[in-house]
Specification:
Layout: H1 2-5, H2 8-26, H3 37-47, H4 49-69, E1 75-84, E2 90-91, E3 99-100, E4 105-118, H5 122-189, H6 194-229, H7 255-262, H8 264-285, E5 290-300, E6 311-321, H9 329-395, H10 401-436
Antiparallel strand pairs: 1-4, 2-3, 4-5, 5-6
Helix pairs in contact: 2-9, 3-5, 4-5, 5-6, 5-8, 5-10, 7-9, 8-9, 9-10
Length: 441
């Protein structure tokens, strides 16, 4: 990291080189209807089904929180019933009519309220568990959003890279066609052989084959970009952007600490560890007594002296439940949740180590790509000069066809190498931002 801080001049020169070759072809004012990187990311966030599903999961998590809080409130139910009984208990004294102790037609209607009075904090732990679950779901949504954003960046710049690669390949084909014209003229004049023509034609065929492969890769890239952004297949996909970027300002000694604080994977791992602890706390309290209370009010018949008359009645009580033996279920729950808690702690440590390694790798990747960017520009300038000399010498009959073809191929390879280095530099900067948990937009 200290080495990167010492490379301020390298950063500045790399940024200038990065913007120079591609801005002419790709930058400028954004026309109406074209797709910029910012617009692509916005479309992904608006249309991607994965983000919509994650948002619905947050709604479900909020409902679980509300459901867990319901344990704090009384559960009120209303009931009504009718029962016909025959025979019923009755008694008679001499010649008097028999006295019934219960009616044949029994009616009952009541409202009952039940509530947990004391449960050693199990309800509170349940609410905390639901809140932690909601927080984890929110982290998952943001993590999905960031990952899709990074995928969009990869696809967008990948499409720009392929467009430019095709342009370079077409430029090579044009140069080779021009060389073929010179070779044909020289062949007709008797100063070139059929082998010279065939060599040029073979180079042209190989360049066209590479252009076809690049075009296929571009179509695949655009299909993936359409899927992410939700753009229909029948709509044009016109990209507008450049390979210019500002070097990451995160290259400082505290970048790893920053990544551990900002990366959602770490936050999610910490939250999962907290959930595991809460589940263990609930499992420990499952074997403790629970005190509940109930009260009901209603109207029913069956009371003396007139058992057919509906009368008000009230009932109230307190219930204590002590689990004595549950078939070793409680002890198994405690053992399971303890193991899961330890596993969550190890996963958190593993996640932190992965983040540290990823940041170090991305820092090295940025530094490496910036060095490549410095060397490829010199290679392109040298290849251009060699190609210009070879063309002039070939037209004057001082160079062979093979010499011309080799220099044209070297120029194309140098331009592709510079384009590849530019692409790698841009993507390594975005990868570093992703590794540190920085939000793109």
């Amino acid at each position: 990291m200290k080495r990167i801080l010492a490379k301020t001049g390298v950063w500045t020169l790399a940024a200038l080189m990065l913007s120079a070759p591609c801005r002419t072809a790709l930058a400028g004012e954004s026309p109406e209807g074209v797709l910029t990187l910012e617009k692509s990311i916005r479309l992904v966030r608006e249309n991607n089904p994965a983000l919509k599903a994650a948002a619905e999961e947050i709604t479900a998590a909020e409902a679980r929180v509300t459901k867990s809080k319901s344990a704090w409130y009384p559960q009120i139910t209303a009931s009504a019933g009718y029962t016909y009984i025959d025979p019923v208990s009755e008694m008679s004294f001499g010649s008097t009519p028999p006295i019934k102790f219960m009616p044949n037609n029994n009616y009952d209607a009541k409202v009952t309220a039940r509530a947990t009075i004391f449960d050693f904090g199990k309800r509170g732990e349940g609410v905390k568990l639901a809140l932690s679950g909601k927080k984890s779901t929110e982290h998952t949504l943001e993590l999905t959003r960031r990952e899709l954003t990074f995928q969009t960046v990869q696809l967008f710049y990948g499409a720009l890279f392929l467009h430019e690669s095709i342009r370079v390949q077409q430029k090579e084909i044009g140069a080779l066609n021009k060389a073929l014209e010179f070779s044909t003229k020289r062949y007709k004049a008797g100063s070139a052989t059929r082998f010279d023509l065939l060599s040029t034609e073979v180079r042209i065929a190989a360049a066209r084959s590479r252009a076809i492969d690049l075009d296929h890769a571009l179509r695949r890239n655009e299909l993936a970009l359409r899927r992410l952004t939700g753009i229909a297949d029948n709509l044009p996909l016109q990209l507008h952007g450049s390979f210019s970027t500002t070097p990451s300002a995160s290259a400082e000694p505290g970048i790893v600490t920053q990544a551990l604080q900002q990366r959602l994977e770490v936050k999610l791992a910490v939250e999962n560890e907290l959930v595991a602890r809460q589940k263990r706390s609930i499992a420990i309290k499952e074997g403790l007594p629970v005190i509940t209370g109930s009260a009901s009010y209603g109207r029913t018949n069956g009371y003396q002296p007139d058992i057919e008359v509906m009368r008000n009645n009230i009932a109230a009580g307190v219930h204590l439940e002590i689990p004595l033996f549950t078939g070793f279920r409680n002890s198994a729950d405690r053992q399971e949740t303890t193991a899961l808690m330890h596993a969550a702690a190890e996963r958190r440590v593993d996640t932190e180590q992965q983040v540290k390694n990823e940041v170090e790798e991305m820092l090295d990747g940025v530094q490496t790509s910036s060095k490549k960017l410095l060397t490829t520009d010199a290679q392109v300038n040298q290849a251009k000069l060699a190609a210009e000399h070879a063309r002039a010498r070939y037209e004057n009959g001082m160079a062979t066809t093979l010499d011309l073809l080799d220099t044209e191929s070297s120029l194309s390879q140098a331009e592709l190498a510079r384009l590849q280095a530019t692409y790698e530099y841009v993507m390594s900067n975005y990868a570093l931002k992703r590794a540190t948990g920085e939000v793109f937009w």
